[in-house]
Structure formats: C-alpha cells, structure tokens
Amino acid sequence: MSRVSEPSSPSAPPRERTAAPARSGRLGFAGLILLLGAVLLVSLVVAVGLGPVSIPAGDVARMLGHRLAPWLVSEAPAGPQSVIVLDIRFPRVLLGAVVGAGLAAVGAVLQGVLRNPLADPYIIGASSGASLGAVLVILAGVSPFGPLSLPLSAFAGAMAAFGFVLGISRRGGQLAPTRLILAGVAVAALTEAVTSYIVLTTPDKEVRTALFWTLGGLSGTQWRDVGVPAVIVLSATAWFVTRATLLNALVLGDEGATGLGVEVDRLRLRLITASALVIGTVVAVSGGIGFVALMVPHAVRLAARADNRHLVPLSALTGALLLVWVDVGARMLNQPDEIPIGVITAVLGSPFFLFLLIRADR
Amino acid sequence: MNIEIRDVSWLQVLHEITLSVRSGEVAGLVGPNGSGKTSLLRCVYRSTRPDGGRITVGGMDVWQAPAREVARTVAVLAQDTPADLNNSVEQIVGLGRIPYLGALGRLSAAERTLIADTIERLELGPLRRRPYATLSGGERQRVQLARALVQEPKVLILDEPTNHLDLRHQVDVLRLARSIGVTVLVTLHDLQLAAAACDRLAVLSEGRVVAEGPAVEVVTHDLLRRVYHVEAHVTPGPDDLPRIFLPV
Lengths: 362, 248
What we know:
The structure holds 2 protein chains of 2 kinds. By secondary structure, chain A is mainly alpha-helical.
C-alpha cells in the first residue's frame, strides 16, 4: 500500500527565504489560524440562529452578548427565543465545535503516530469500543460513578478495544501498520456486532438511547454536557501541539526518530492514550460520528501542506467548523425530524475516503 | 569523541562485546548476516537496551543520559528509513534539529542558516523543494547525511549506508562521512569497501568480536574461512589494502 500523506503541491509558489520546514501556503500559519478562528466564531453565531425556528444572527449576537458581557450589551430579546438560543441551541452548537475539533485533532495525531494516512479512531477500533462501553452502561442502567459513568465507560471501551488492537499489531517492539489496520477492522467489526446485538435484543424504551451511540448526534445537548469534553479536547489539543515536533520525527521511522532523541514507544503510548481519552469523552456525548477524524486532516494537508505543528491546530479548527455546519444540516434537512450526524458525515466521508484510495494508487 | 563498549550483551544476539573507537576514527563493523552488527549499533544509539554492559560516548553513559542529550552527540543513519515520504528535502534535513527544539518547535535564525548551509554543502540546493519520495537512492542517502550533520553530532553511526547504492554513490557517501571529521562507526558488507573506507575494522561473528585491527591484519584467508566459510584468495593490493578473490 502506498502512502498518501502530505501530498506535494507542485503549484505552490516557491518561497526563497525559509530554510525551515515549509510554511502553510500563502497566508502563513498564523493567518490561517486567525482566519479559521474568525470564521468559526461567526459560524457559531449564525448556526445558533438556524433550525426549525429561525432566529436572525443579530438577535443571537445580542442575546449572547447580553449573557456573556451584560455590562456591554445591556438589552437583548427575551422570551422563548432566548430559551432556544441560550439553553438549547448554543450548548449544542458549542458541543458540536468541541466534538469536531477533538475528532479532527485525534485523527491528525493518529495518522502521524501510526505512520498511516488511513488511521482514524474507527478504523483502529477505538470508537466502536467506546460505543460498546457506552451502550453497555446505558442498557445496564447503572451509574457507579454518577454523571461520569458514561464518559468513563466509553473511555474504558475505547482503551480496551484500541489496546487490544495495538497489542496485536506490535511485532518485536515495532508497530506494523498493515497488521494494525487488519486487527483494527476485525476488532471494530466484532465490537459493532456485539453492540448491534445488544441494541436489538433490548426492550424498546432503551433502544432509541442506545441507537444514538451507533449513529451519532447532538440533539438534547445541555450545558452540563459541554464542560468536560471542552476541557479535555482543548487541553489534549494543546498538548498535542507541544508533541508535534516529535511527531514530525516519526516520518523517519522508529529507528530514525530514536536517533533524533525521540523515545518512540513512550511518545506513541502517551499520544494514543490521550487520543483514546478524547475519543472516549467525545463519543460519550455525541455518539459515533464517523469520518471527521479521517477527512479533516487530509483536507488540511491538501490545502496547506502543513507539518504536524500546523496540522494539529488547523485540523482542530476545521473539524470544529465542519461539525457545526453538519449539525445545522442534521436539524434543517429533514424537518421536523433530525438526521443523525453520523449519517451525514458518512455520506460526505465515504466518497472522500475512496478519493484518497484512488489517489494512493496513482 | 571516543566510543567505549564494555561487556555488552543482548538476548542471544550479542555476547559480552567489548570494543573501543578512538576519537575521530572511522571504525568499520563487518561480519556475516545475523552476526549482530545492527543490534550492536542499536545499543549504541539508544534504540535497543542491552541486557548487560555499558556504553559510553565521550564519557557519557548513553543509557543513563537523557535521549535528547544522546541525540545531540550521536547521529544515526538507520537502515530501512521509509523512502516514500512526501516531505520536502528541506523538511527532512530540518528534522535534524529536533534534539535541540523546544515544545513549540521553533527554529532560530542560526538554525535556519545551519540547515541552508548544510543543504548547500551536500549539493542538495537544487533539490530542496523536491518531495523526498521522488529522489534516487543516492540522493536520499545524501539527504539523510545532511539531516545527521544538522544534528551537529560528535559521533556518526551508519548502518549499511551503501545498501542499494551503485559504486559511485557508495564511494560518495563514505567519502562524505570521512570528510566530516567526527568519530564514525559504520557497518558494511563489502569487505573491500570497508577496508578502503575505515581506519580500523572489527569483525563480528555470532555476537562476538573475533578480530579487530587494521584491515590488512584483519581481512585474511583464514578469517574469511573461519567467519564466512568461504575459501577466498586474499592478497595485498598496491595500496597495501587487502584484495579478495572469490571462488565463484
């Protein structure tokens, strides 16, 4: 299998000055971050206004401003619209951004750490493991750790499934990417089968809740769902950025990276553990949203040809942006019903995945 | 900077190996396939932890010192580096600064200059935007050598650096390695090439050093029979280096 990571862009203008690892496109890295950050902020406000009940962006901005900085925005529309914006839509849109950022950052890290462009939390079994963990806890109806039971069990599922895949893929201390993909596909198929069986043999009442995990969605998000994932995704992404230089060394292979002073096994274990933590948390609040982790880093590479120091934060911002708008589609396209987010990302993602495969063969 | 290997053992592969490489010397490690050459190198560059023994580089115990510290002293050209990288030549060479970089990975102006100068010095200037995957084998080895030089090492470790290279590029790579002026420990399969490129040779067989010294003393009819099980005719050439005639 040939690699498809970091495709070259022969059309990019030659830069004479830098001798360092290449900058991202014409805008530069800082410019891209600022641009994406600004677009994301605007998108958050606009997306909050979109839904079965449409609310002008200006009103949304005033409500948000009034809530966040009452000394600045003294008056805002009140009533049911304010409840929709502040208590229903805003946490949901924010969680969408957090989930998208987490998935995309993890995708970028996993592709680098496993030296495989097709790695994502699904293909390596982590997401399906998290879903199984979550479904088991929902259907057992127990919560030994209070409100943390769900994220913790999803996390445990992600770690168990991925740890198993990782254990199988290592040979003589070296990670064999082909084995990893094969083991991951097998473990994912197994956990998904178990999840499906459990869901199908459960009384109707819990089935909808359980089905949520396999399809993914953000409906019913409340403010209390946002905090933990936001903290974990933000801190993990920040930490990923500080490891990105070491991640860059891995392109030289394990031996090459070791020669550069990178403690490869430790780095890999830590990054994967952090990734599983992020995936476990994100799946626990959003269910199985596929392809974002695979798609976004590749899209960023195509556009910016960034090294990991740039790839991780750019992917996080792009993932946030993508998921905010996919969620808008989820609640607008089939009114009054919602389309599961996982369905939309799969519809967008599958052709993209095939495009990558075709490209890899050239 | 000198390398001292003392009583190093690892699994059933290396048995109490003791070997010294003097500062500035180019030392060759030769021996049959599976004799432990690569494993010994891995012990030196902190990839495989030996079960016993001690390895010091310039007095620093490589297995006690932090990995980054070792990488600032010892640079490696490993075997089997992935070839299908789309990173540019410039990016690959820049990776050599990783042992010196902070968490955010910012290169200083001096480091950028070092990278640019090294690229020019190894005549990679015209290639510096090219994806690594599109280079020839000889060009790739030159890029890896440039990356190693950017590490500013005192010791260079080369594992089969002439693999897959044609005659001219074999000579090029070894000549470059010699010209840097640091201590070099290199594994080579071609004994005649090793004799020409190295100040001293150590012969490994089944995880033990069985001969050590200048090529002319080490590469003998008797050694080839004992270690390689080959009946070859060995005579000194006009340069006093051994010439091997194989009975094929």
